[in-house]
Design a protein that fits this description.
The chain is of the alpha+beta class. Helices cover 41% and strands 15% of the residues. Strands 1, 2, 3, 4, 7, 8, 11, 12 and 13 form a nine-stranded mixed β-sheet that branches. A two-stranded antiparallel ribbon has the order 5-6. The chain has a two-stranded antiparallel ribbon with strand order 9-10. A hairpin with a 2-residue loop joins β9 and β10. The longest helix has 19 residues. The chain is globular.
Length: 447
């Protein structure tokens, strides 16, 4: 991912109203405070946190861009000033780790990836559990959040963050190709394999299937194959990537890429995989719903009007795609402004604000927002239906839930690589990976 200098922005109501400039562009700017609102008796209305200042760290992510223009509403309502710092993903993790390791009280609130950093941050005491905060205001309606999404942000029974972006694995397909061949949209993995075989025509540069083939990136996408066959990476503190269910899932994924994928699949993460699908050279593609615009935007895709979306195909255990919180909001345990920080988190994840950000194409976790017709306007109608269906169940993780996530992904990814390259037996590779994953689990547990 391209490196970039950090962007620091201070947003005030006066600046936005007067200039109409978008938040987040340029260096930090100081702006005059907005004029105070008058009460009914002509006196200034009291604001609960007048004079407080918060630092918010976001990823360079569409949600961050969607929230910035809304900040003046929050500042006017509460009297809290919000300074925003934005970073690319890799820089974000590094920035937060450095800050928290030093015991810094800032940032007060930050975006984070629960399945990548959540356990580490929580174990180190860097995040403030939000259980009590989330329950103390009935109007907040915490029960409105998707239960599986909340499970993703829960560590050792404690709420480490509030979901802001959800993600599910779905099936992308070429509507025109299926119609021409009179093939129904696959509802099971067996049907998917059969359809892939029928549409695979490499002599015409048409390949049946594509997905991530790189060792670490593929883990999140093979996970739905694993769950749908009745397996998982772990059961409690026991590694389980060598079970018959796991071996079947890894074999299916590897075979699809090996026998029916385009050249170079071993070098493909999601940008490369969806890129070749968008070039019109692949019939089926499976990955996260959140990247759909790369396939439907005419400026990026030659098949923009021919892309269909479907619920992940069912295996032996049914359709069990991952249904996760890919990004959450959390509070620094050392923040000197905890009540004000919660006030911001509560506002940013309120029903009205989630609706506003979701209408910009950011899939949120509030069921009531998805239940509203206007809650789906940021997505193609077919995709919105698939997202709603996928949110009904699914699994709350898309990788091994350990602290040493990178090591675990590499260990398990080796199983699929053996299958793609044909350089080894998947069952043997699974036994080796299971021992490696168990060692990682034990290390994280201090055994």
């Amino acid at each position: 991912m391209q490196k970039s200098m950090k962007r620091v922005v201070h947003i005030g109501l006066t600046a936005v109203v007067a200039s109409g400039l978008l938040a987040g562009c340029g260096n930090k700017t100081e702006t005059p405070a907005p004029a105070p609102a008058a009460g009914g008796n002509g006196q200034t209305a009291a604001k609960p946190f007048e004079g407080k200042k918060l630092t918010l760290v976001t990823a360079n992510h569409p949600w961050g861009e969607a929230i910035k223009p809304l900040l003046p509403q929050f500042e006017e309502k509460t009297g809290i000033k919000v300074e925003v710092q934005s970073f690319f993903e890799d820089q974000l993790t590094q920035k937060l780790t450095v800050q928290f390791t030093s015991g810094a009280a800032t940032p007060d609130v930050f975006m984070y990836r629960p399945l990548q950093e959540g356990k580490l941050f929580y174990k180190n005491g860097w995040v403030q559990p939000l259980d009590d905060y989330s329950k103390k205001d009935a109007d907040y309606d915490f029960n409105d959040f998707n239960k599986t999404a909340v499970s993703t942000t829960t560590v050792d029974g404690k709420l480490a963050g509030i979901p802001i972006i959800t993600e599910q694995e779905i099936l992308y397909y070429r509507k025109d190709l299926l119609q021409k061949a009179n093939i129904p949209v696959p509802k099971t993995l067996d049907e998917l394999v059969d359809a892939v075989k029928k549409l695979h025509d490499p002599k015409s540069e048409m390949y049946g299937f594509v997905a991530r083939g790189q060792r670490s990136p593929l883990i999140t996408q093979v996970s739905s194959f694993l769950y749908s066959e009745g397996g998982d990476f772990m059961q409690g503190d026991k590694a389980t990537v060598n079970t018959p269910e796991a071996i079947k899932a890894f074999t299916t994924y590897a075979t699809l890429l090996k026998d029916y994928g385009p050249p170079g699949v071993l070098n493909m993460s999601w940008p490369q995989a969806i890129g070749i699908f968008a070039q019109g050279k692949v019939a089926f593609y499976t990955d996260a719903n959140s990247i759909y615009q790369n396939a439907t935007d005419p400026s990026k895709s030659t098949v923009a009007d021919k892309v269909g979306f479907a619920v992940f195909p069912a295996g032996k255990a049914g359709s069990k795609p991952y249904n996760i919180t890919s990004w959450g909001l959390s509070m620094n345990a050392k923040s000197a402004n905890k009540d004000a920080s919660w006030e911001f988190i509560k506002w940013a994840t309120s029903k009205d604000v989630v609706l506003a950000t979701q209408q910009k194409g950011n899939p949120g976790a509030r069921q009531s927002v998805w239940d509203k017709p206007e809650g789906s306007t940021g997505f193609p109608a077919e995709l919105a239906t698939v997202i709603k269906e996928s949110q009904k169940g699914g699994v709350d993780h898309d990788r091994p839930t350990v602290i040493s996530v990178g090591e675990a992904r590499d260990a398990v990814g080796a199983i699929v690589l053996k299958g793609i390259t044909g350089e080894g037996d998947i069952k043997t590779a699974a036994e080796t990976a299971n021992k490696e994953l168990q060692a990682i689990i034990d290390k994280d547990k201090g055994k």
